[in-house]
Design brief:
CATH topology of the largest domain: L-amino peptidase D-ALA esterase/amidase
CATH superfamily of the largest domain: L-amino peptidase D-ALA esterase/amidase
Helix content: 25-40%
Strand content: 25-35%
Radius of gyration: 22 Å
Number of helices: 11
CATH class of the largest domain: Alpha Beta
Order of helices and strands: EEEHEHEHHEEEHEHEHHHEEEHEEH
Amino acid sequence: MKEITKKNFEGYKYIDGGVCAAKGFKANGLYCGIKKTSVSDGNESPISGNKNDIGLVMSDVMCAAAGVYTQNKVKGAPVTVTKRNLETTGGKAQAIIVNSKNANTCNADGEQKACRMCELAAEQLGIKPEEVIVASTGVIGQILPIEPIENCIEELAAGLSYDGNEKAATAIMTTDTVKKEVAVEFEVDGKLCRLGGMGKGSGMIHPNMATTLNFITTDCAVSSDMLKKALSEVVKITYNCLSVDGDQSTNDTCVVMANGLAGNAEITSAGEEFEVFKKALYIVMMNITKMLAKDGEGATKLLECTVTGAKDLDTAITVAKSVICSPLFKCAMFGADANWGRILCAVGYADADFDINKVDVSLSSKAGRIDVCRNGSGIDFSEEEAKKVLIEDEITISVSIGDGEGAATAWGCDLTYDYVKINGDYRS
């Protein structure tokens, strides 16, 4: 299991339930046969076999909603339709329908199929098509067969339940090897609130939204405008600081839905209650980001680069991303090689302003910590001790670039032989 180490935050408690943790949300997932496969030996690969490939999430009541999407010029049809739906409703939604195994991207009938998925869900749920968020993930450039979805939609809707989060979480997996869910509870306005989410992503992941689908639900009452503000601020320091392989996807979507059933006074402006909510959103999105990184295609290690001493947040983010995105550094981590020169090289070509002669670097894991660079130059260290530190499956790279107050963290994974194998026959 590629479980991550979760950090505890005062006032917030981790709970089970994923997208169903918050009051009034139910979900389901099942196999409908979008990509027919035959597995003769009984061993299903992560991208084949009769695993769930269609998921549905619904709130008992209408929700405020906000989304962020891929910045790739090539966008999946579901991205276009979801953006249009949220614009039409003024930031309102009540359900999500999502499929895996086919991205519904670069197809002449893509928008028609995405709209049809919204219609199918709406008919079963008794809501309007524009109140449905739609998403797809999988192979690009192949026609999405709508018939399997039409044939299963009644069963999918009938099976919605308040503990159906795992079925939905597995339905969005492609090359993912584990489902990704996190939820927390916290207090706002004297009311107990919950916020939870599910995500997917393993390859084609790079900053500015990865190949991830992320759906987050909460029973905290928050206006659409404040949801949008919180999401845009938190995604900058979580999902947008994630890279597995440098490829930016076409279908990235992260949506937050808030139904207000916790009973708190609606958060409509910045202030203490908004900050409490935003931190809950950060905790869930940060942990899912780490899950996505640790489950990178073929990965054996989670890499976390923390940059401090920057003149501002953007500088710290730029440097941290530069390290995480370096293929040479990622290869060194796969080999547990403390080749700190590759880290300093990546720091040096980051498009940011700082004094390289003030850069310090250290490597750490649960096995210990070792300093490898001070003031831009190497220092003596034990290669044997470094190997012990780097053989672990979660590695932290600490980089100090000065005495400023800017700090940021980026997440990624090592680059292994299996990454090439997986992507060499992705469509087969």
